[in-house]
Amino acid sequence: MPSPITTPTTQPSLQDLMVRFLANRSDAALAAVESGEGEVEPHEVAAGFRVDPRAAWTDATTNTPAATGSLPPDWATLVSQPAPAFAVPMAAGNFPQRVRDLHPLLTKFEPAELRPSGTQHPTPGLAGLRSWIAKNTTQPVLAAGLARLIGEFDTAEKLLPADAANEQAALLWHRGRCEEALAGWTAMPDSPAATFNRGMALLFLGRVAEAKPVLTAAVAAIPETSGWNALARLYLSVAEIHG
To answer: What is the pTM of this model?
Structure first.
């Protein structure tokens, strides 16, 4: 009786992960997927990556369902800026497409160098967005998230409601107080955002083995149509590669 055929399990290539993560959010990545060409290098895909402002806004307002459907002023300008980001929590104002350069994640993974240090300077310009934040008092969580996104941490702290636990932890994370942020997310009841953020924080605090099951749960909890699901899968792949 012939032996059963087994399929070896192999890690996806850097190119596969890059294209998979950016597909449907980048003209270059989508072209690479459709053509099936094997000669497309990951850095070439990333170089052609253009964030869709509407898709980014949808993901940025995942946890704020009452958010206005119209894009705030300067949003398209903000999302097109190539500022590097690697450890991005699922919180108001954040969008997973901020993670564009996958090489530091998939090759030489140095989590201490990739998580926020709290030294971010406020993004210059964006007067229209700053005005929108100041006037949008009916949606303080979203306004605070956008303030945090552009590095206006003090403004974000003033705007945030005391009971917005996920957002309070996200602000700590971006300020470089990462252990405190993880403690905040760990204390929260289970939710897609809390689970994602626990796994993300564990990964970028170097606790890779602990991050794997949490990120697996996040992938299961977040709808596949969400960009956050794609980022959860990417972080899980990073944990599997470096764990």
So the answer is: 0.83
